[in-house]
Amino acid sequence: MTAPTSPDVAIIGSGINALTAAALLARSGKRVAVFEREAVAGGCMRSEELAEGVTYDPLATTFVLWVTGGAHGALGADLARHGVEFCATDTPTGVLLPDGRALTYTTDRAANVAAFDAAHDGDGAQLARDLDAFGADAGLLFGLMGGDPWSKQTAKLLAKEAWKRKPRGLATVMGGALQPMRSWLESAFESDLSRALWAPWCLHAGLGPEAAFSGQMGKVIGFALEAASAPVVKGGRLQHGARPDCHHRGTWRQRPHVGRGRRDHP
Ligand SMILES: Cc1cc2nc3c(=O)[nH]c(=O)nc-3n(C[C@H](O)[C@H](O)[C@H](O)COP(=O)(O)OP(=O)(O)OC[C@H]3O[C@@H](n4cnc5c(N)ncnc54)[C@H](O)[C@@H]3O)c2cc1C
User: Fold this and answer.
1) Would the CB of 13 count as within 6 Å of ligand 1?
2) Measuring from atom 53 of ligand 1, which residue has the nearest CA?
3) Maximum Cα–Cα distance across the chain
4) Four-residue CA torsion sign, 112, 114, 117, 123
5) Structural domains of the chain, ranges and CATH numbers in brackets
6) Could you read off the pLDDT of 137-157 as tens digits, one per residue?
7) Which of 33, 55, 163, 172 is buried most, with the most CB atoms less than 10 Å from its CB?
8) Ligand 1 within 6 A of 15 CB?
9) What pLDDT digit, counting tens, does each position of 162-171 carry?
10) Among residues 84, 62, 96, which one has the least CA distance to residue 224?
């Protein structure tokens, strides 16, 4: 690893976004320095030892949005070369109610439709309709969620979609996306079991069941889990000592909080 004295780019914080930016910049030939105030890199992406030999990820656990995203496309082979291996199951989620009824969600659409229909006839068809509708708008919705709201890229995306769908069509999609989780579940599914499967997932996205956009996050998660399951890093992330790809031009500094007015030269 080289230790550049004068980096081209300094990145404050070492969460997944910082490390991704650092790795991509380092790969493009920039000298990158990452500064982290914690003793351990990775931000919310970390592993801890619960007991001897038992490693777990206390914060972010599943990497479905990562493995289906563009950054993984660019960096996946490098990560694999460094030993990062993702593991997934074909039954990524499920629910068990106190009365013993259960519903398992799989990566297979036909099995999911059958399971929802077994909970209540018609819930399966509704699930398929909702996921297909989300799939048709996925480019727009993932583009908005993944992009900087005040960027040229987002303005171009919205202009293109307004041209394609006409302004009223775009307004309809955006309005529909604001639906809260509770209203989506109660209007879409008859069975309390189907509803119970999705209800907790809005909390995972940091939203309550009445929050605007929480229904949309439920569909994002349903769509993503069916398409790519819930991949976790084999063995936890502790072993990978999250840092930019040091085979390129990166360096990693553990420093106290980097704040305004402080000059923290490596
Ligand atoms: C409980 C929980 C569960 C989650 N589960 C999932 C999941 O399963 N799947 C998923 O995809 N997402 C999950 N998320 C969301 C995911 O963790 C975040 O989207 C992601 O970690 C954000 O990454 P980041 O790089 O933006 O910031 P962070 O991960 O928050 O990292 C920021 C880093 O910057 C450092 N820092 C900040 N300011 C300074 C400073 N001034 N000087 C020096 N260092 C600084 C911090 O110490 C930290 O290490 C979860 C989040 C939480 C809280």
Assistant:
1) yes
2) 59
3) 66
4) positive
5) 9-63+83-87+235-254 (3.50.50.60), 93-228 (no CATH)
6) 988 988 888 788 899 999 999
7) 33
8) yes
9) 999 999 999 9
10) 62
